[in-house]
Amino acid sequence: MSTTLRPTPSPNHAQIRTALARVRGLGSAKEGTDHFWRQRVTAVANLFLVIFAVCLVLRLVGTDYAEARAVLASPLVTVALAMLIVSGVIHMRLGMQTVIEDYIHSEGAKVVALMANTFFAIAIGATCILAVLKLGFGG
Amino acid sequence: MASAKPSAGSPRPISPHLQIYSPLINMVSSIVHRITGVALYFGTLLLAWWLVAAASGPAAYAYASWIFNSPFGLLVLFGYTWALFHHMFGGLRHLIWDTGRGFDLDTVDRMCWFSIIGSVSLTILVWAAILFS
Ligand code: HEM
């Protein structure tokens, strides 16, 4: 008992956790490294999609409405914009979650802020996707 | 050394907080990555508005274009462009760190300066293309 070679951060914790919980290793939020990983995957996706979006904006400079609609109706643009929106809102929701958890410590305000964060991300995502699809189908 | 107001007994030392240190490029880059992330977050409202306007019809699109082309609109878009590029380079730096590389202070500082110079250059380049096209 008294001769462990490596430091045990929390002896109580070590005793309470079952072997299965240790193997799963998902921690108290049961998410493991999911948050981190999804933030990275969407970061890489954003990297490419944001560069595409900047090129798209440059393409649209100086165009009139009809031409802009035509560009935004091309399938490649629709698909890329849809991917940017999905990747972007997942990424920004995860990022804002970290910011909220870092700065808001009272439990009630934190829960409200986290919920508002999710609602905002989904509202932006749904609105943008609808607009992009409408543009894509030429409606 | 700074010490906390004692509630009981002798004053105890506290660790110096952020404002004690003179800012270094790495800490400034770190907080700027967060600030630009949050700015981009709320800036998605502009993207949503522009997409909805485009999908709604010529009148809504003309109105959005008019706002975006006003001096204030251009200023906001200019700032958004820089925030996007700086966050992109900052994110790239994080991704490099995630591979376990680039942690020595020289490399950290160089990557931070690279994000600043890179983001300012790209912003100017994009806006030169926009304004002089
Ligand atoms: C351009 C490509 C982008 C890349 C490569 C990228 C990369 C990253 C990475 C790696 C992080 C994690 C930083 C950390 O662990 O401390 C991060 C955080 C964040 N990102 Fe992005 N990102 C990109 C675009 C965006 C966009 C478009 C938005 C918003 C719409 C956004 C919003 C955020 C927010 C709010 C955070 C949290 C900041 C923090 O915790 O300090 N990012 N980004």
Topology (SSEs and partners):
The complex is a heterodimer of chains A (139) and B (133).
Chain A: H1 11-16, H2 19-24, H3 34-60, H4 65-72, H5 75-103, H6 107-137
Chain B: H1 25-56, H2 58-69, H3 71-98, H4 105-131
Helix pairs in contact in B: 1-2, 1-3, 3-4
The structure holds protoporphyrin IX containing FE (HEM).
Protoporphyrin IX containing FE sits between chains B (33-34, 37-38, 40-41, 44, 87-88, 91-92, 94-95) and A (39, 43, 46-47, 50, 88, 91-92, 95-96, 98-99).
How would you characterize the overall build of this protein?
The complex is a heterodimer of chains A (139) and B (133). By secondary structure, chain A is mainly alpha-helical. Helices cover 77% and strands 0% of the residues of chain A. Chain A contains six helices and no strands. Chain A has helices at 11-16, 19-24, 34-60, 65-72, 75-103, 107-137. Chain A is elongated. Chain A starts with 10 loop residues before the first helix and ends with a helix. The relative contact order of chain A is 0.10. By secondary structure, chain B is an all-alpha fold. Chain B has a single domain (25-131), classed as Fumarate reductase/succinate dehydrogenase, transmembrane subunit (3 helical TM bundles of succinate and fumarate reductases), CATH 1.20.1300. Chain B has four helices and no strands. In chain B, helix 3 (71-98) runs antiparallel to helix 4 (105-131). The radius of gyration of chain B is 21 Å and the shape is elongated. The termini of chain B are far apart. Chain A binds chain B through residues 40, 43-44, 46-47, 50, 54, 57-58, 61-62, 65, 68-69, 72, 81, 88-89, 92, 95-96, 99, 124, 127-128, 130-132, 134-135, 139, and chain B through 34, 37-38, 40-41, 44-45, 47-48, 51-52, 54-55, 58, 61-62, 84, 88, 91-92, 94-95, 98, 126, 129-130, 133.
